[in-house]
Amino acid sequence: MTAYLVTACGAVFLSVLVSFIIPQGKLGKTITVVLRLVCIAILISPLTGLFDVSSYSSEDIADYSYICSVYSSNQSEALEEILYNEFGVASDCTVTVIYSEGQFYVDNVEVCLFTAEGEVAGKIYEYLQAEGYINITVYEQTDADS
User: Fold this and answer.
1) I want to staple 133 with a disulfide (CB 3.0 to 4.6 A). Which of 2, 46, 51, 128 is the partner?
2) Where do runs of H (alpha helix) occur along 1-146?
């Protein structure tokens, strides 16, 4: 508080001192306006502390576990639709999205095929691998799984 008062008094004193020294005319008026703005800025500087949000981290503001669960759910549904359109098979997909180092990542993908015939599981695995997914598990549902 003492530093603020010394700064404010110094700015006002400097403004008064300069107003005695500067010449009259357009330049004098311009300098006076600038010095008044500087004084006002110094006097209201404590108010800027009221709007300081830098003390909050992004971890405190957002619930990343909820965002990851919603993102995972949406990605899982989208992948099911893509696999149905590309390969014509019904599936139950689980895409796990995690938040790490300031970014969202797909941690793993699990695909359960309901009505797969032949080498569809292998083709889907290759398709997912080509799309950049990691930790991929593709399996066919058996009667024991139901």
Assistant:
1) 128
2) 2-21, 26-44, 58-61, 64-87, 120-130
What type of residue sits at position 106? V
Which residues have C-beta within 8 Å of that of residue 137, sequence separation ≥ 6?
A: 108, 109, 110, 111
Amino acid type, 103: Q
- Which token pair is 116? 């797969």
pLDDT of residue 103: 87
Best CA proximity match to 7, nearest among 36, 33, 42: 42
- The answer to whether 46 and 62 are in contact (CB under 8 A) is no
Q: CA gyration radius for the chain? A: 32
Position 6, amino acid: V
Contact 105, 98 (CB under 8 A): yes
